[in-house]
Design brief:
Layout lengths: L3 E4 L2 E4 L24 H11 L9 H11 L8 E3 L16 E5 L3 E5 L4 E8 L3 E8 L10 E2 L4 H4 L14 E4 L5 E5 L32 E6 L2 E6 L18 H30 L6 H18 L16 H8 L32 H4 L3 H14 L14 H14 L9
Antiparallel strand pairs: 1-2, 3-4, 4-5, 5-6, 6-7, 7-8, 9-10, 11-12
């Protein structure tokens, strides 16, 4: 669903081209504000010497860093397209590894540098890059401006967000064609995903663009299978997976983070232009934005899994469920389904994250009220007809017991 609105006299669609004041504008202060993202806090401790990491090898440093950041090794995804600042070091023989939790996304390139996207609850992605220490030297961490070329451009609608590329890579990893430009989230068809990425545990998930390379021919691009582990040694990495479930969680989170960050920037821009107040037109726009985020929270338009579903890596499932928040009935937003969709209770666990919880109270109340309407017993709203009645009851009960800021009378 496209949400039409007007900024500076130009009519656009909320899912197509969001326009904001420049992120350097005083109301945003992207480069000037004190930062409140988890990696910035971690960096300070690291530089003070209060965090101990293993510097004895590249792999051991990576695993100790992931552990210190509370990022599970099982979230590992391998990407062999050259869609990174470190493109000269990435190829099908030396894929880049990506790991994540709800607030930090980490990239690792063999013989190269560590890349970080850390989510500030109001500013969005804060980008860092640093050499993998050698010879016992401590990391020297730099805030990256070059990352902004991709992570605050067309792909994220001009705000600092999370980018997932899907391309047909050539034999050396360079892009021949690309898909799903400027889009992120669980609604993207599988037929447009995973290009340039290895995907394991997804033999019945077809068609998609993972696990292959391409070549230009007189008849167009011809693709060649590239099975995971054929061109590289799994032992280089902490685990021998690039599991489909990790890809699905990563995609969902990226779509959520990008949408909520856009809302933060749009609200600040509107308040700045209205000198602290929202004119009627902007209030209507914010209501539409709240509706869009509520729909995303409730997995509207989620791509359906193939017949038979997916298994999901057992260690990833265990690690993911280890931090579940449950209600008195034992139900949680992290409980898996994995048959038709990823989750049994289709309301996103990302509702607990700082980037959502730090939305302005009035705007967050709009989202909560939209959720209440969608989850009301016997609600005939066709937008949410896919939610089962018992599922709606469970979701309402989970939210009522695990969120402390729901509007009075929400349930």
């Amino acid at each position: 669903m496209l949400l039409a609105f007007t900024i500076s006299g130009k009519s656009i669609g909320a899912e197509e081209d969001l326009s904001f004041s420049d992120i350097k504008a005083p109301e945003h202060g992207y480069w000037d504000r004190p930062l409140n993202d988890p990696f910035t806090r971690f960096k300070e401790q690291l530089e003070q010497g209060s965090i101990k990491l293993d510097y004895s090898s590249e792999k051991r440093f990576l695993t100790s860093l992931l552990k210190a950041l509370n990022i599970s090794e099982s979230t590992q995804m391998l990407v062999y397209s050259t869609t990174s600042l470190q493109l000269s070091l990435i190829s099908p023989k030396t894929p880049r590894a990506v790991y994540f939790n709800e607030d930090i996304y980490l990239g690792y390139v063999q013989g190269g540098r560590i890349e970080i996207v850390s989510i500030d609850p109001e500013l969005g992605g804060i980008f860092y890059i640093f050499d993998i220490p050698r010879g016992g030297a401590k990391p020297v961490v730099d805030r990256s401006r070059r990352c902004m070329n991709c992570h605050s451009g067309e792909d994220t609608h001009e705000v600092p967000g999370v980018v997932i590329k899907s391309v047909i890579p050539g034999p050396k990893g360079g892009s021949l064609d690309s898909y799903r430009r400027g889009q992120s989230g669980h609604g993207i068809p599988f037929s447009e995903r995973f290009g340039g990425w290895h995907v394991t545990g997804a033999d019945n998930l077809q068609p998609h663009w993972g696990n292959l390379t391409g070549n230009f021919t007189p008849d167009g691009i011809v693709t060649t299978p590239l099975p995971p582990g054929e061109a590289f040694d799994w032992s280089v990495f902490p685990v021998a997976t690039s599991d489909i479930l990790a890809h699905l969680l990563h995609e969902h989170q990226a779509g959520f983070v990008n949408r909520v960050i856009q809302a933060h920037y749009r609200i600040r821009t509107a308040l700045h232009n209205g000198r602290g107040k929202l004119p009627g037109n902007d209030r209507a726009i914010m209501a539409e934005q709240a509706d869009m985020i509520a729909r995303y929270l409730l997995f509207a338009d989620e791509a359906e899994l193939p017949e038979g579903g997916i298994a999901g890596d057992s260690q990833l499932k265990e690690d993911f469920l280890a931090v579940r928040k449950s209600n008195s009935e034992g139900d949680s937003l992290r409980d898996f389904d994995l048959e038709k969709g990823v989750f049994r209770n289709r309301c996103s666990y990302m509702i607990y994250t700082p980037v959502f919880q730090n939305l302005p109270e009035g705007f967050k109340k709009l989202i909560y009220n939209r959720l209440a309407k969608a989850l009301a017993p016997g609600n005939g709203d066709p937008e949410f007809a896919y939610l089962l009645e018992d599922e709606k009851v469970r979701i309402r009960a989970i939210l009522a017991e695990t969120l402390s800021d729901l509007p009075k009378g929400w349930q």
